[in-house]
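> run fold Putative membrane protein
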Amino acid sequence: MERHPEQPSPPQSSTTFTDLKPHGWRNGATWTYLVMLLASGVALLVSFVLSAETLQMARHPGQSLGCDVNAVLSCSTVAQAWQSEIVKFGELSFPNAFFGIAAESVFVTIAVIGMARMTMPKWFATCTWLGSLAALAYSYWLTSQSLFVINALCPWCLVLMFATTIQFMAVSHATVTVQHLPPHASSLRTYYRLNIDLMVDAVWIVALITLILVKDGAMLFR
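> ok
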């Protein structure tokens, strides 16, 4: 009987633990973009409220606003500071809230597109993340100005800051798990697959609350 040479066994899969893609409902398009939609919707609503209060102050100078609680929680004090109107063209100035309406409307639209599971070009997903990062940085700058320069906090602005933070968390989550960007970032996929982001996000939110309480906690409830 003729002997056949032993056939080589097929190569084994080289997939490692860190190469596994995140799975489960938390890492799907529906959940990640739903969180983005809710956060962006809250930010959009707050931007409308702040815009309305800016117009109210323009019509009735010197009148206190409804969100003026005390010397520290005072929308009027923050709204009268130069930081509330960064963009100026000659003698015209534009409140930050107007730009918040424009930006958050875009994020709401993108979140709806994401929930519909429509394919996004890589450049578009990248620009979405960069835009969310820019919105977060701008929000944190304004909050730092309120805490350490103006020495007054706007309650609506605080809501906007936390909404922008959660929006950035959701956009980052969707960028990695749904859009698969960056393409070879196995460590980021592991970060979300093991739900490490839940712990980091919780610490992040608690750190923000702690900072506010340490700085102005004694005055917030007077």
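The domain at 24-85+95-220 is CATH 1.20.1440 (de novo design (two linked rop proteins)).
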